[in-house]
């Protein structure tokens, strides 16, 4: 290591460890709770029961919820990503 | 107490980051009772989590190096594998045709769909090509972890390889896909923070103006100040690389299995785009920048993969080293996910298909767990080859381009058209693969061929084109002799067919008999089920 890089002080090192532990624990626990809830809700259901429970119906070629928010609309993201990609491609050619 | 450059605080942080995954996996043991749970998380995962996990497939420890070394070699041109032109193109096919069909058929491996669409030989070819490809991807991850250990702790390279192998596979075998999906969200978060922390310290030391000055000439997709491939215009090389990258999400069972873990069809499709691509691009940004300036700060490093280790060693203060190294290594949780992918192909596509049919579900799950652990050792055979190359990911480009890429063609054309006949895929892929392999062998061992013909990014253009042409010819002949495939026969397999057929009850009987004939026991078909007045295949 280059000598000028230096080291964190003891207090700073403790803060890093505590932050790592707390963030890890919080994230792991939240995700576990979410997945456990999902599993209890739909994990044991057959697909047709799951779709019925979640209000999914066939619209055209795809299965979609009756009310489809934009942020879970695949078509929105398909078009959005394509446009962003083309803009970035041209801007930084 | 110290360990190489790491002081006691670094060691504690490193241990905390790595041991947490093992402990965490135990919580998910109850969710690994069936193949569906073990490999596709019982299809309960919300879209946002699937999206982050999809990004994690492309951002394991091997891919951190992948991005850095490509940008080290070619500037921003190398980042185009991450700002995914090819990926966007491939994802359109996935989102609109391929994934919905697989989701409705209830398949666990993407190769199972190939048997339903084409024939069993195509399924086997694609499965074994995937096993080959995933093996050298795993090897790249082993090398990545070993290099970080070697540079920062002084642990010997091959000891680092052995250590790397066991870090995540045990956790994956214990917790299955549900654990993988949850832990990768955490690891993605830490890895992204660590990447930006590293970039922050580099900019602080170099000065922002100096940093930007080093960066700016190289910040072009194509017009970088160098000839990327000698004798080929950068524009043509760019097209070749896009083609190699376009195949990634489609032929990659690991990627597909995570998408299939989504709660519903539309959530799986959404996750392909968001947050997948946003997370992916953001996560890679610091590594791309480091690669570009690494070329100027550490010229002539071979393999260039060591540059990441040098940045960590030279720019991160002691006390933060444990966090940065631990976060990068923790992304190797995807290592377990990759060995799990290989286990799925071996168990479902080979063992269950040919060796032992109709065994109890827990028999296959047990075998899957054993294979998940065992397969952490086998990829090490690639290590010496990869270490002899200018950068480790070079092997991926060479082998994938030559023989794996053609298997992407049947997924594309087979999902959008019923014209292509049963035998056409296998014959097309074999022909394309042989041509790709022949070009590579002649160029390497007989006589050097011109770059426009033999470069790793050019070969896929030829191998996939030949595959497509052969598929068309074989289909014309087979359709003439046997007659074209009927809509009824492909119902549920190709979703572009007229929707009126979805309502036809007799169709289900035809599909059922077809499924029984090809004996895909886990490809479940729910035939008389109606949702909202519509019938569907699960």
Question: What does this entry look like structurally?
Answer:
The complex is a heterodimer of chains A (93) and B (538). Chain A is mainly alpha-helical and 93 residues long. Helices cover 65% and strands 9% of the residues of chain A. Chain A is built from 3 helices and 2 strands, in the order ααββα. Chain A has helices spanning 10-43, 47-54, 74-91, and strands at 56-59, 62-65. Chain A has a two-stranded antiparallel sheet. In chain A, a hairpin with a 2-residue loop joins strand 1 and strand 2. By secondary structure, chain B is mostly helical. The N and C termini of chain B lie far apart (57 Å). Chain B has one domain: Sodium/glucose cotransporter, CATH 1.20.1730.10. In chain B, helix 1 crosses helix 8, helix 3 (47-57) packs parallel to helix 14 (276-297) and helix 7 (120-153) packs antiparallel against helix 17. Chain B is globular and about 70 Å long. Chain B has helices spanning 8-27, 35-40, 47-57, 61-74, 85-105, 110-117, 120-153, 157-206, 208-215, 234-246, 248-251, 253-259, 265-273, 276-297, 306-315, 321-330, 333-355, 361-374, 383-387, 394-404, 408-416, 424-446, 451-454, 459-482, 505-518, and strands at residues 530-531, 534-535. The model of chain B is unreliable at 500-507 and 520-538 (pLDDT under 50). In chain B, strands 1-2 form a two-stranded antiparallel sheet. Chains A and B meet through helix 1, helix 2, strand 1, strand 2 and helix 3 of A and helix 1, helix 5, helix 8, helix 13 and helix 15 of B.
